[in-house]
Every structure is written in structure tokens, then in C-alpha cells.
Amino acid sequence: MPDGPVHVQGEVVATKRVGGYRHLTLTAPGVPERFRAGNFVALTADGHVARRAFWVHRVRASSAFGPTLDVVMETRGSGTAWLAAQPVGAKVAITGPLGRPFALPKDAVSCLLVGEGYAAAPLFPLAERLRERGCSVSLAVSAPDEAHLLSALEARRSARAVTVLTADGSVGVRGTVADHVGDLVGRSDADVVYAAGPHHVLHAVAAAAESAGAWSQVAVESPTPCGTGLCHGCPLPVVGEDGVDRVVRACTEGPVVRGDRVRWASL
Amino acid sequence: MPDGPVHVQGEVVATKRVGGYRHLTLTAPGVPERFRAGNFVALTADGHVARRAFWVHRVRASSAFGPTLDVVMETRGSGTAWLAAQPVGAKVAITGPLGRPFALPKDAVSCLLVGEGYAAAPLFPLAERLRERGCSVSLAVSAPDEAHLLSALEARRSARAVTVLTADGSVGVRGTVADHVGDLVGRSDADVVYAAGPHHVLHAVAAAAESAGAWSQVAVESPTPCGTGLCHGCPLPVVGEDGVDRVVRACTEGPVVRGDRVRWASL
Amino acid sequence: MSAQVPGPVMVAAGCGGTGRELEPFSGHAGLAGLDLVTRSLTLDPRPGGPGPRVAEVPGGLVNAVGLPNPGLGHFLATELPWLVRAGVRVHVSIAGATMGEYAELAGRLSTAPGVAGLEVNVGAPDEAGAGLFEVREPYHAASVVAAVRREFPADRPLLAKLRPDVSRIVEGARACHEAGATAIVVGNAVPAAFADGRPGGLSGPAIATIALRCVATVRDALPAVPTIGCGGVHDVTSARAYLDAGASAVQVGTALLHDPTTVARLRASLSTPPSADTPEETA
Amino acid sequence: MSAQVPGPVMVAAGCGGTGRELEPFSGHAGLAGLDLVTRSLTLDPRPGGPGPRVAEVPGGLVNAVGLPNPGLGHFLATELPWLVRAGVRVHVSIAGATMGEYAELAGRLSTAPGVAGLEVNVGAPDEAGAGLFEVREPYHAASVVAAVRREFPADRPLLAKLRPDVSRIVEGARACHEAGATAIVVGNAVPAAFADGRPGGLSGPAIATIALRCVATVRDALPAVPTIGCGGVHDVTSARAYLDAGASAVQVGTALLHDPTTVARLRASLSTPPSADTPEETA
Ligand SMILES: Cc1cc2nc3c(=O)[nH]c(=O)nc-3n(C[C@H](O)[C@H](O)[C@H](O)COP(=O)(O)OP(=O)(O)OC[C@H]3O[C@@H](n4cnc5c(N)ncnc54)[C@H](O)[C@@H]3O)c2cc1C
Ligand SMILES: Cc1cc2nc3c(=O)[nH]c(=O)nc-3n(C[C@H](O)[C@H](O)[C@H](O)COP(=O)(O)OP(=O)(O)OC[C@H]3O[C@@H](n4cnc5c(N)ncnc54)[C@H](O)[C@@H]3O)c2cc1C
Ligand SMILES: Cc1cc2nc3c(=O)[nH]c(=O)nc-3n(C[C@H](O)[C@H](O)[C@H](O)COP(=O)(O)O)c2cc1C
Ligand SMILES: Cc1cc2nc3c(=O)[nH]c(=O)nc-3n(C[C@H](O)[C@H](O)[C@H](O)COP(=O)(O)O)c2cc1C
Ligand code: FES
Ligand code: FES
Where does FAD bind (chains A, B) (predicted)? Predict the structure, then answer.
């Protein structure tokens, strides 16, 4: 399979409301085949010039419709409203897979995966990959409330331990990632911490990893007007390996970057 | 019921493909109640600034959904494509009833109604009104082919004679309105000829009526960006009662005008 | 007594028909108190241009309507009295081929009963094509304003409507204000072309950010000059963007062609200040 | 030998990433022969502006990217060689704060192997904010062109990119052509503002009719001056409107951000003349 993303006409083959989210299953010839955990896809919403980015939650190598991918969508504005309303059979232009995926450790180390809301989506395929490599995987899924919690049921196959956090305590442990991430890093004895969620969550995770001497890989969600590296519209302030401040493209040099490289205060 | 149009949120309550057309039944609170034959409605197509105009084909005073109206739609570009694809339950902004309706004769005279393609739509409710007034009604429906012919079945209740014309002869008499309208006017002994269709059809009808000494009322279809008289974007060149050339708004001073008043060559 | 800036919501020139056509869509308040700018009136009647006059493009319309209007005399005799009876605050837009025509229009309108104010159209998107006085430099616009101001009572608002051209708007606004304009209408259809190259003007949401830039620029350079934002206003959010950028009022044009109730809704929403707990209507 | 106008389809400045990002979307032909204008390069590296840099509006985008680029030296050392190897016809867009910077950029680029041509960016939507040389009058643009032309071989195309401002485009095009520009790129993002009033530039289908008007105006006034249409090109129909209005080529910007295959598809469609029996692709 050649490298790099493709731009294709996809089709909705399943759509399902789960709690506060819409799960869409799409065909997108070439995209599932190229996918690695942490990649995202850009979808076209009718009448909108900018693209809409979504984490790939899972891919199926084959189904009745051929290879498919799933995204988990929260309705925010008119673009997600349109996309989430697309019925089975609707055509949607898809570009992907996009962005740098999560870097996988060479050795069978101990890993903690932390995801907030829909952004936990890319951690599920990551957990599978890590498990295949013999890593010990702990997973923490967090959300404001139960409706916005991705079900961790299927993750129990890949994860040694699963922690559920809700801000309102409606299910699992009450509290936020910031409240618990120090503990989680310690308890899991993580060598690498992976995280996906809003900036403040990632910042908390990166800080906790750093103080525990662990690596962190964070999947940053900044607005990505094109998603393909063409517009430079997605500035991500980082510190380079050389110690020099830089601004890179979140969609191309990211979205997954080392947590200790992000200049959180400039975000 | 107060006069004048309303702008309301309508809802698609039925959608049906008939030959080359899409028949949509819509609720539009206040519109059916105000309707007179020859009125049109302006619909909003998602993502489009200009409005899309459609003849009202029929109104039902009551149905399971309350009063409804029907339009017959031919897909032309992206606006009609969007509208024609709306499923039952879809919301559509509707303005109407718009435009001057067909003028009805005071006496029980003999009338010929000529409609081309979907534009025959407003003639059906007109036929009913004329019949109620004791007029003798002859109806001619014309189209390029059978798929674009509005079914005249229900009109047989209101019309004494129904003539079907198709350009390809697939059904009824082969030929166009221009070919046959002279005959039709003569045969029906019409005092008034009503017509709806593209400009060249209306021109032919107006000419035939004039030479037979009959009045004509033609429903002109010029692009109507707003449909409500606000933009002056729908110029219709006419000769005033005073013999002076004028340009009036097709949507407001029309769409129904006296055929002998239109400056066809300037259209 | 100096003139008050109208608003906060006005009907933009040429997008309210003769005024009457808005009545069915004006809600409970009716047309009473509505600040309506008429379509631009000329001394003599004009039939307007040939069709197609309006084309739809992404986010807007291109128009070359050609200022169809019945001429000042007919307007004064028939349309104005109706509007005044309906309680409309009538701002008459005037357009001329020469400075003298502008002055004559203003003079006759100064004595017509019920004219609330004037708006001089000095930034049409195709002046040459429309046979109007060409405003190449800001001082051309200002001299029209001065000529009109001389003929029109100082206690009634005189609006100068300029093109949303950021490289000239500050100079134009300053010059027109000094020449006596009560407020500057910042925005008109942007010079554009139909698909076949024919000249026209682009209006609608597509141009909102262009006129907004000009309003913000005038606010920064000339904080004392009142502006009225015009271009792409279609909901509370787009109207507020202008007000937040310093405009005293907004004019609504193309949005009325899309939804004739727009002005009625905006008048209802913008007459009360926004509050944290009542969500505003957006479209 | 005088320089040839590139085209008929080019990638507009700042909308093709570093060039590499287009490769996966360039179809069978790959990048070979692609006329790509780089993002505007400055002498020193620039990080670009803060976020949000791009906002979506009806029919387009408003951007204030701030010309992020690695500086000329880094570009020459790393990006240019890759592009040349890939067979791209590289047109380097240059931007400077002074005439001297433009001249220095041109001088260094004149000896860099593989530079097909230059484009001078003299019509950015917020020159002041971007710290660029301000082009207030057409002769300012022309003097930049003259300074650059002196440094850059006459047999390679030099494009002057001007704002789509109909009241100045003819004068600007004439002056820049006389100063040595091979062709005039008519169009850039139109000065606009974000919802909060911050300056930016409006691009995309929303502005197509604005730049088209300017192209037609230049064609009528200066039939001998080659133009390249830029603004809102997104399908064959929108590209052909420019060519029909007299442009020799088109540049595609925002459409690539929406669909990165746009240029590959347009190159395929526009390389052959339209024929009555093969329907063209439209979007
Ligand atoms: C790498 C990445 C992955 C993402 N994955 C998911 C996912 O799996 N599920 C999901 O529900 N959402 C995801 N998002 C967020 C999603 O892209 C936005 O919610 C969506 O673009 C909002 O579009 P809208 O038209 O509904 O909202 P509007 O608020 O109307 O959008 C206006 C503009 O802002 C941009 N925008 C607004 N919010 C965001 C945001 N949070 N991130 C990026 N752009 C934004 C939009 O793209 C658009 O250009 C992801 C974003 C990124 C960058
Ligand atoms: C009074 C009136 C009554 C009509 N009644 C019917 C009807 O009952 N059934 C039906 O199928 N069609 C009817 N039409 C035509 C219908 O309005 C157009 O087919 C429709 O507007 C095309 O929109 P589009 O986006 O699909 O096409 P596009 O070609 O993409 O439209 C582009 C622009 O041109 C305008 N336009 C294009 N063709 C026409 C046309 N023939 N008339 C007016 N505007 C046009 C559109 O409104 C739009 O602004 C009527 C038109 C008028 C004026
Ligand atoms: C159909 C139409 C007719 C117009 N006629 C006039 C006019 O007569 N005089 C004038 O000053 N502006 C006229 N305009 C410009 C509008 O008043 C307004 O300034 C412009 O369209 C931008 O605002 P909008 O985006 O809200 O439409 C017209 C605009 C349209 C669309
Ligand atoms: C994100 C973005 C970045 C741009 N960067 C540049 C640039 O660096 N130099 C330049 O001359 N134009 C730049 N432009 C302007 C485009 O090259 C183009 O002239 C403009 O966007 C209009 O064309 P379009 O509608 O096809 O985008 C940029 C435009 C966008 C949207
Ligand atoms: S979103 Fe366009 S470069 Fe990243
Ligand atoms: S369509 Fe706008 S006035 Fe007739």
C-alpha cells in the first residue's frame, strides 16, 4: 500500500446514536488500509469550505461493504450537525489518513492511555497495537458525564486496567483527568503516557508524565481548516529538539507530538 | 383571512416521483388558506441565497396534517436537486402565496387553458374555479414527452375537453403548442385563453388568442430572485394601458399578465 | 439641533421594493418606525437594466439592476405618501449623473412632507454602467455630500454611502463627514462581474467580512465619525459584529430577498440589549 | 527571448503547503510540470501569526496566517531542491518590508538552480499588519516590480500579484507591466475582518466575481497585458470564466484546502480544449 493520504468519496454505511455522540461507519477506499492509531480524517460538510477533522476510532479490514472506518462525532456547529445527520447511503468526501500517528515503543513497556470525551476514540486502536507488541496497557477514559463517555467495554480485551472518570461522578470515579492523572501514572508505572483530549487535559497529562520521568505522546486538537498541511492555518507552538521555539502545523507535524515539546502557555 | 403572503416554516408531508417530476406536498401555515390559482410560492434551498419559485398545483383545505399545498418540481440545478431530495419531515422555508393570480371572468364564458410541462400545474385549480363559475373549460396539456406531461386525469372532472400534446408523439397528439394552439382556440370557441409555460409557448398562445379576438392571461416564468417584489430583479417588459412601454416586476405585477401586454421581443 | 443617526436596523437601498411589499412580513409592529432607505431615486424615471439582473453565487448575489425607479416626481406623488401614512421613517436614496442633479434632488426632497432623511449613493459598483456621477477619489464623494447638505435641513440625517474599499474608506469617511454627512454608510455591493464578465455588484453574506473590515478601520482612525454597517447582515450575530466593531447601526439588504422577515426579526432582537441568559436567534 | 506566461493552472501562493503535501493528491501525472507558487518567502524566517489564523465564512475563508515561512536560506537549502527533483515548476513568491528586501530576494533567487519564475506579492490584504512594504498607489507596486526585474533574468517569468480592486487595477496592471512584469496576477485575498474585527483576507468562491470583474476590466483597457485570474477558482466552470474574460491562466488557492485534488483535476480538464460532446467536470 503506498504511503500518504488519499482524497476519496466515502459512503455512510452505518449511523448510530450512542449517548451524546453519533457513531458513523464509512467506506473510504484506501483510508482504512493506510490507517495507524492517532490518524484523523477530514470530512467535507455540505456548504462549508473548511474541512472537519475527526479521529478514526476503528477500522475494519473487511465488512459487507469492504474496509470501513468509524468516527465518533459530537455535534458542535453546523458542520457536525450536517455530518451527523447523514443517513446510510449518503456520500461524504473524505481525506485521510491524516497527521502523524502515535509513536509506538520498540520494547514491551508499560503504557498509560488517557482520553477525554470523543477524543478517547483513537486510543482504542492504539491499545490493540500496543497489546500486540506485548506492552502492558492501562486505559483511563474520562468525560463530563456518562453520556459523553466512550464505552470502554471492548477495550477490556486490550487493557490490563481500565479507569473510568466522570466530572459529575455519574459513573466511575468522580473527578477530572487533572485530578487523577498523577495517581494513574504512578499506579500504572507507565514508561509512556498517551493522551488525547482538549489542550488542558493534555497539558495535565504531559506534566504528570514529565514529573514521573515518563515519555508522553499527546494528540492535540487545534482547528485544522484543511487538515492536509496546505494552509498553515493550524499553528502549534513547540520547542524543537534543538531547544529553539518553533511553530509547526498541528495537522502535519502533529497532531501527535511529544507532550514535553508543546509550549502549552502559547496555545 | 388577512391579505398578502406569509413567510413560514413548512414541512414536507409527502413526496412522490411521477414521471420526470417530483410532487411535494407541504404544510405551510397560512399559505393554502390564501391561495388563488396562478399564485406561486418561493422556497428556500439550503445554502442558496436566492429563492426558488414554484407554481402551486393544488391546495387541500384539510388533511391529516392540516391545510397543505402541492408543487410539481423538475430538477434543474442544485437548488431544485436539494428541494426534490427532501424527505418527509424535512423543514422548508416557504413564502406565499405570491404574485397576481389568474383573473377570473365575471360571466360564464368559454375558456381554453394551455399548459406546458410542469407549468400546467396552476391550470388545474384554475379549471376548478372556472367550472364553479359555470365556465366551459377546455384544457390542453403539452410536454416534450410523456414523462413530462402532467396527468390530466383529475382535470376531466372540471374540463369539458382535454387535449394532450407531446412533441415526440409518445402520447396524445404529436406536436407543440405553437403547432396546435390556433386550432385549439378555434375549436374551443374560447373567450379567454389562459396559459402557463415558457415564454415561447405563451407568446404563441397570446398571438393565437389575439387573432381570434379572445382575451389571454399568461403566467410568465422569468427568474425571480426574491419572488416578493423587493429586489426588482425580475424585469418584465410590458405595454401599459396608456400605451407606454414599461418594465414591471414579474413576481409582483405578474406573473399572470394579459398576453397582449407583454413585449415578447424584449424578453 | 443636529441630526440623529437612524437605526439600529435599517432596510438597505434597493432591497425593500417600494416599501409596501415588506408590510406582510413586518410582524406585529408593522412598518411603523421602520427606518427604510428607498431604492435610489433619480430625477427622471429609469426602467432599469435588461435581464438577467441578478445571479446567485456562493454566499451571495451579483446584481446589475440598473436603478429602476419611477423618477422623483412619481415617487413624491404616489409612493412617499403611502409610506408616510404607514409610519415608515423614509430615508430617500438619491443618485445622479451630475452634482447638480444631486442638489436638485435634495432641494425638492427638503420640502416634501415626511422625508426623514437622505442617503447619497456615491459608491455604486458600476457607476459608469449606471450612468452615475463617478466617484474616483474621496473628495468627489465629499463634494456631492456638500452640495446635498446645502439643500437639506441640518436637523435631518444625511447619510453618505461609500464603497467598502479599505484603502480609501478612511479618507472618504473623513471627507464626507466634514462635508456634512451625519453618518457614513460603510458598504455597498462590491464591484464584481457576472459569469460572462458583465459588470455587477456582489452582495450578501459573502461580503460581510469586507465591509466589517472597513467599519473597524474607520472606528480606529476616526472614532468620532458615526458609521452604519452594510453588507451581509442576516442575523443577530452578523449585525452585532458590526455594532461591536463600532457601527451605530446596520442596514439589511440581500438578507431580505432571502427571508423577507429578517428586518422585523432583527428589529425585535436588537432593540433590547443582549443578556447572558436569553439566547439570541441566529440563522 | 521573453518569458512565457505559465499556466493554464497554477497553485496559488500559500495554499500548497511546502509543495510536498500535494504529492499524494496529484494523480498519475504527479507533481511533474506543476506550476506552483510557493507561500510568500521573506529573507528571515517568520513564525506566522497566532491562532485562530483561519475562520470559515459563507462561501469562503478569512485568513491572517501572517506569512509563516522558513526564510529564504532554509527554503533554498531544503525545500527548493526537493521541488525541483519532483519536476515542479517553482514560482517563488517573495514579500519584503522594503524595496531593498525585494531586490535582495530576487537577486539570490536569480542564481538558485531550478527557480522557474518569481511572483511579487504586492497586494496582501493586511500589509501593515504583516509588516510588508505598503502598496498605497499603483506606482509603489511598479517600483517593486522594477527593482525585482533588474535582479531577475528577463527570460524567466516575473508575475506581479495585485489586489482585486477595480478602481486601481488598470493603473496597477499597466504600471507593473511597463516595469517588467510578464503577467499580472489579478487577485489576492480581499481585505476583510474576522468576526471580532481583526484584519484578515477573504478568499474562496465568495470572491470569484470580484476578481473576475478586475480581469475583464484589464482585458478591456489593456488587451496586450497578460493576466492570471486568482480568486475562488474551484472547478472547470469557475476557471473558464476567467479564461473567457481574457486571463491567460488561473491560480487555485482556497479550493485546494477544501479538496486537495482540485488542481490535479483542473490540469487534466483544462489541458485539452472543451469539446461539445465531452461534458466537463463541475463541482
Ligand atoms: C485532529 C482533530 C480531531 C478531531 N476529532 C474529533 C472527533 O473524533 N469527534 C468530534 O466530534 N470532533 C472531533 N474534532 C473536532 C471537530 O473537528 C469539530 O468539532 C468540528 O470541526 C466543528 O465543526 P462545526 O461546523 O460543527 O462547528 P463550528 O463551531 O460551526 O465550526 C466553525 C469552524 O471552527 C472549526 N472548529 C470548531 N471547533 C473545533 C475544534 N474543536 N477542533 C477543530 N476545529 C474546530 C471548524 O472546523 C470550523 O472551521 C477533532 C478536531 C481535530 C482538529
Ligand atoms: C413563477 C415561477 C413559477 C415556477 N414554477 C415552477 C414549478 O412549478 N415547477 C418547477 O419545476 N419549476 C418552476 N419554476 C422554475 C424554478 O423556479 C427553477 O427551475 C428553479 O429556480 C431552478 O433552480 P435550480 O437551483 O435548480 O437551478 P439553477 O439553474 O442552478 O438556478 C440558478 C439560478 O437561476 C434561477 N433559475 C434558473 N432557471 C429558472 C427558471 N426557469 N425560472 C426561474 N428562475 C430560474 C434560479 O432560481 C437560481 O437563482 C418556476 C419559476 C417561476 C419564476
Ligand atoms: C437587488 C439589489 C438592488 C440594490 N439597489 C440599490 C440602490 O438602488 N441603491 C443603493 O445605494 N444600493 C443598492 N443596493 C445595494 C444594497 O443597498 C447594499 O448596500 C448591498 O447589497 C450590501 O448589503 P447586503 O449584503 O445586505 O445586500 C442594491 C442591492 C441589491 C442586492
Ligand atoms: C491560507 C492562505 C494563505 C495564503 N498565503 C499567501 C501568501 O503567502 N502569499 C500570497 O501572495 N498570497 C497568499 N494567499 C492568497 C492566495 O494565494 C490567493 O491569492 C487568494 O486566496 C485568492 O484565491 P483563492 O480564492 O483561490 O484562495 C493565501 C491565501 C490563503 C487562504
Ligand atoms: S490545517 Fe491546513 S495546514 Fe494544518
Ligand atoms: S424577484 Fe425580486 S422583485 Fe421580483
Answer: 79-80
